[in-house]
Amino acid sequence: MAKRKPLLKKKSTMAAARPLRVSPALQQEVEQFLYRQAELLDTRQWQAWIDLFADDGIYWMPPDASYKTWDGQPAIFAEDKNLMTVRMGRVLHPDAWSQRPLWGTNHVVSNVVVQKSSASELLVKSRFHMMELRRDDVRHFAGSYLHTLRKTRDGYRIALQRVDMTNAQAAYDYVLQVWV
Amino acid sequence: MLRENVPDLSRFVEPDRVRRELYTDPEIFELEMQRIHERVWIYCGHLSQIPKAGDYYTVQIGRQPMIMVRRSDGGVSVLYNRCPHRGNMICGDQKGNTGDQFRCSYHAWTFHQDGRLKNIPMMESGYQGTRLMELRGRSDADCNMKPAARVEVYRGFVFASLAKDGPTLKEFLGKSIVAFDDMCDRAPEGEVEIVPNCFRVIQHSNWKLFMENQIDALHPSVTHQSTGRAAHEVEKQIAKKAKKGEAPLSYHMLSAFATVTIDKWDNFQTINYPYGHCILTGYMGLRPQDPDTLAYDRIMIAKYGRKRFEEIIGVNIHHVLVYPGLSVQSPLQQLRAVRPLGVDRTLTEIWHFRLKGAPEAIYRRSLAYYNLVNSPATLINADDLENFWKCHQGLASDGGDWVSFHRHYGRDLEKDGGVESGPGMGTSEAPMRNQMKAWTEYMRG
Fold it and tell me: What is the ipTM of this complex?
């Protein structure tokens, strides 16, 4: 018979959960960057949204939280800037039929935590809630973002944005036309 | 529940047009579930989804919740997902491993993997002398989980029929079996394995609208013009800057939706078969000579020999429709299963496969298509779904009673047990007419 595991762990896991201490200025900078990114989506400034990514930046939404990499794996989104440009071109095309109806989104981004900070990069976790109106129907999408932000001369650029959407594996009532 | 008074549905279907009620009437939908989906061979899944004993997936056949499970003897059972006690669903989740028995969450009745009753708590004292125990021991006893009437597996693809009589799976599939052969033969090991992710998308429209769309050669350049154009623009930019002057294949997959203009689709061909199946032929294009394809070709030739390899690669298919619920793009290993939920509500389950023994670079082509076209962030299907919804809205109106399938009517060719669209008439609505002909035969009962 296998040894029974103790109900209480000996070592506290509190140490792992202790957040990184960052300056209020850095915290604010990072938050404002994320708010701006969401604002660009809600105001449909697609090119400006794409410009927030580094040249080799990737927008990634895995099928579920267990995925470790976007490369060579199924993904809901796994887009470099070229593919982002295709998506933008499609959405702006006069014959994008599914763009004709009433449609809009509203994002709230919060719970912004800087997990890692180095001279060149930041790793930032946050949570989001997006409400989408399409015709007369409201849908909600929510989850977490994990941004790898690169420090450049022109400010932060997104090297990798990982979006773990709580809804990711549920059946979709309609599809996602643009980034969440 | 069986309906005794079945209206004469044949007056709803004429050779070149059908009544809109086929898509909007809930009573017709209920009959379809009874007479089509709950009778014919329906795709449940692939064996590679359930590799270990006890692995299961739940799946809908018509209106029936079912379980597809791998037994310890290596075989597969397809069971009604229902406890014989008080009707509780046995499996309330999409997938899992049940070990060597199923156990109901309500009163802990247990069942073997093939559905036979294993044990009931305090069974002897509780049921001695009752009718339940009289019949126990019979495979069809009421105390067992009921199995699907028939289960057959073809090259790993699991099908079940809820009717005990009818054609065998191979008889039913007929020439549409090429969907699975074309997929598996392209694998050096002659087999595919599932990539274990299913995207599920709901359409607010009748299941038949989806089936008619899959082999509709006329719509791609119209419906998907926006994506085709956008991809073409980016493709050109990438090609300009690229060393070999070419963009990755994935751009071509998308730009083809615009660059293959509406008239060019007449160069394709549909071949339509009994039971409603259809094959849409593909481009007879030049064979790619890039290093990845050549490496794959070499492996294939080593496995199959040049003659067989040429036969395999020469299979010229774009899409196979296996009526009433499968849309297969065999050269790209994509599979969509259709689960009707209501007259105006349909679920599609979207999968793709890996060719066993093929180089990673070849898998990445299927993956690119899966991610770009078949994911919930699809650049293609968004506009199809918009059409499906608008079709349902329009069909529910009194603005017309008929749906037209007149295109190239009278010019199809009967050949080798199938009905082919005529030469240069790939946009013929022959597939729709063929599906409706099969529909009438099924519905007659």
Answer: 0.94
